[in-house]
Design a protein that fits this description.
single chain, 170 residues, 5-stranded mixed sheet, two-stranded antiparallel sheet, 6 helices
């Protein structure tokens, strides 16, 4: 998984000084933007897939969680892929490109704008249940590639195409 962090995320992870620009050959299927959201004095991590805006929200992170943040992210990803009824082939592909983590600099104002909208939606909810909020966000309409789509459906279509392309390349 390639995480493209915001300033808040790099401050939380303390990785700002190590970041380089995303290389041109990076797999776009593996690129996720990461942002830290402060809600009720607790930190939440919002990860958003760059191409589809499919998101994962993890609430209640502490500095102690930094040691095993990768396991926490993969655990949440597995949960949401299963709950959102991705096929086994799609899940295996997404999990295989999410095994190794790296952090790079990249900006995409469209993704950042969508993430700000998602953060506002999350903050408006009284009940901060990260799993139900993730489900809610992924089934809302957002502007993706200049048309309104649900991130969940966009991700399923995108990953199916990515799998097909990888199979044709082999």
């Amino acid at each position: 998984m390639i995480i493209l962090p915001t300033k808040k995320f790099t401050d939380f992870m303390n990785v700002r000084h190590n970041l380089t620009s995303l290389p041109d050959f990076a797999n776009p299927d593996a690129c996720w933007f990461g942002n830290i959201i402060l809600i009720n004095r607790k930190k939440g991590l919002l990860l958003t897939h760059e191409q589809t805006r499919y998101s994962i929200f993890i609430y209640g992170l502490t500095k102690k969680d930094l040691k095993n943040l990768h396991e926490i992210i993969v655990s949440h990803l597995k949960y949401h892929l299963f709950e959102d009824k991705f096929t086994m082939k799609q899940m295996n592909y997404l999990l295989s490109i999410s095994e190794n983590f790296s952090y790079f600099k990249k900006t995409n104002r469209k993704v950042t704008g969508t993430m700000n909208n998602m953060a506002a939606i999350i903050k408006m909810n009284d009940n901060i249940d990260d799993k139900s909020l993730t489900k809610k966000i992924n089934t809302m309409l957002f502007t993706i590639n200049d048309e309104y789509q649900e991130p969940l459906e966009a991700m399923k279509e995108y990953i199916e195409e990515a799998i097909l392309i990888r199979e044709l390349e082999d």
